[in-house]
Amino acid sequence: LSGTGVLESYAGEYIKYDKGKIFSAGTQDSTLVAKQTIPIDSTSTAPVNGAAIYGKEALTYTSLNIGKHIEKYGTLATDPYYNFFQYLKSNLIYSQATGAITGVTDGVNYTILVPTNAAIVNAVKAGLLPGNINTGVPTFAPTDGLGITQVSKFIQYHIINKSTVVSDGQKTGQFETLLKNDGGDAAKINVVLNSTTALTLRDVTGATVNVLLGTNDRSNVLSNRAVIHQINGYLKYQF
Question: Are 179 and 153 in contact (CB under 8 A)?
Answer without folding.
Answer: yes
